[in-house]
């Protein structure tokens, strides 16, 4: 390409072009066919609450107005739900946007930032985009290694560490007591992002009350998973009010559209719907466990809406063969996690189709 000498910063000029996730739509364009089973992006297979659907329909009628940039109506019930003040909540266009905001708050060019090697890559994408230097701690077996993460923070002097609990891509979790002990042992000048995108699906031992007194701990939640609104783009951070005030200095105040705000608010008012989704996901996880047992595969125990199936060195080949059969799944990007494929809990119909195709193609990739 001709060098147009555009006045980009050195950071942008040297940044490799990276797409955090190739979307299933792009895969369809590539193959020229529609996917039969879309179980790769940990989207909900169980739709949105009927109350949310109705509220969103009504909100469409007001789309000519700007949204409320303070998301006041939504922050009030969220504050009530979590036992915090509305000033301790920042609503944004999903956790993905919040991750970028935190990085922008604390990461200067070349500054070390700590995460687990192979965990949710969008965080890494933001670190690169703001010129940070990613320092990673390896997993221990199927789990993120809290000791190794803390050691990495101490040895690099990082001011930011990322932890997803439950984790993506393997779906494993640490009990709350261990997460708290992890935060407690970190230096006082290190912020922790606790990404709880999947917390609704996690066992009770993972849950702990939100306490915003500690300014180091930023917890992130989303309406993309259990609430089924990934395409609406809405999530929030629970944090000390000084952190939320700092977000307000830099965030895109109109990023969260009116329809998403209305849907999230209505969905919060439908806990029975959420409970049904969680039950259906548990059923789906059990079905994948049974399928794995039938096929002689190991399924990693999951506290999320997906299950990682351990395939071994031919995992990537299996992913390709599944796509040739119009099944969309994903897999971890880096070793040693890339021994697995990651399958989202689909509807019973999707699960049956997936199982049928997996049974058929698995022998093709077995040594
Ligand atoms: C660990 C984790 N965090 C965040 C997200 C994205 O959340 P959101 O849709 O709220 O941006 C995902 C989505 O897959 C995820 O797995």
Structural features:
Aspartate Aminotransferase, domain 1; alpha/beta; binds pyridoxal-5'-phosphate; 367 residues; 13 helices; Aspartate Aminotransferase, domain 2
Could you characterize the architecture of this molecule?
Helix content is 41%, strand content 14%. The chain has two domains: 21-47 and 272-365, Aspartate Aminotransferase, domain 1 (Alpha-Beta Complex); 50-269, Aspartate Aminotransferase, domain 2 (3-Layer(aba) Sandwich). The protein has a five-stranded mixed sheet with strand order 2-8-7-6-5, sandwiched between helices. A three-stranded antiparallel sheet has the order 9-10-12. It has a two-stranded parallel ribbon with strand order 1-11. Strand 9 and strand 10 (306-310) form a beta hairpin. The protein has helices at residues 10-14, 24-31, 50-60, 72-82, 94-106, 121-129, 146-156, 176-184, 241-250, 258-268, 271-295, 315-324, 348-365, and strands at 37-38, 89-92, 112-116, 133-137, 160-164, 191-195, 217-222, 235-238, 298-299, 306-310, 327-328, 340-344. The model has no long low-confidence stretch (mean pLDDT 97). With 367 residues, it is α/β, with parallel strands linked by helices. The protein is globular. Helix 3 runs antiparallel to helix 10 and helix 12 crosses helix 13. It starts with 9 loop residues before the first helix and ends with a helix. Pyridoxal-5'-phosphate (PLP) is lined by residues 42, 94-96, 120, 164, 168, 195, 197, 222, 224, 230, 235.
């Amino acid at each position: 390409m001709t060098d147009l000498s555009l006045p980009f910063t050195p950071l942008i000029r040297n940044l490799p072009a990276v797409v955090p996730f190739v979307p299933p739509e792009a895969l369809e364009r590539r193959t020229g066919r529609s996917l039969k089973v879309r179980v790769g992006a940990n989207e909900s297979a169980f739709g949105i609450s009927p109350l949310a659907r109705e509220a969103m329909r009504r909100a469409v009628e007001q789309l000519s107005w700007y949204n409320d940039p303070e998301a006041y109506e939504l922050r009030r019930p969220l504050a009530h739900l979590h036992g915090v003040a509305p000033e301790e909540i920042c609503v944004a266009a999903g956790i993905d946007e919040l991750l970028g905001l935190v990085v922008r708050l604390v990461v200067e060019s070349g500054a070390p930032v700590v995460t687990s090697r192979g965990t949710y890559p969008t965080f890494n994408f933001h670190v690169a985009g703001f010129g940070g230097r990613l320092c990673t701690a390896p997993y221990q077996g199927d789990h993120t290694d809290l000791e190794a993460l803390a050691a990495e923070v101490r040895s690099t002097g990082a001011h930011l560490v990322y932890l997803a609990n439950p984790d993506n891509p393997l779906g494993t979790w640490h009990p709350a007591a261990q997460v708290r002990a992890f935060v407690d042992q970190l230096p006082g000048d290190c912020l922790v992002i606790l990404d709880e995108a999947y917390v609704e699906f996690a066992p009770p031992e993972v849950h702990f009350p939100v306490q915003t007194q500690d300014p180091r701990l930023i917890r992130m939640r989303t309406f993309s998973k259990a609430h089924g609104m990934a395409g609406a783009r809405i999530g929030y951070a629970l944090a000390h009010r000084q952190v939320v005030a700092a977000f307000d200095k830099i965030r895109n105040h109109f990023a969260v559209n009116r329809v998403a705000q209305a849907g999230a608010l209505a969905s919060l008012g439908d806990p029975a719907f959420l409970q049904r989704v969680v039950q259906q996901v548990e059923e789906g996880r059990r079905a994948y466990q049974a399928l794995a047992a039938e096929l002689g595969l190991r399924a990693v125990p999951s506290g999320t809406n997906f299950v990682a199936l351990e395939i071994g060195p031919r995992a990537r080949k299996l992913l390709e063969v599944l796509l040739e059969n119009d099944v969309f799944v994903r897999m971890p990007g880096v070793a040693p996690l890339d021994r697995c494929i990651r399958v989202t809990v689909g509807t019973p119909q999707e699960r049956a189709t997936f199982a049928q195709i997996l049974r058929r193609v698995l022998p093709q990739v077995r040594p």
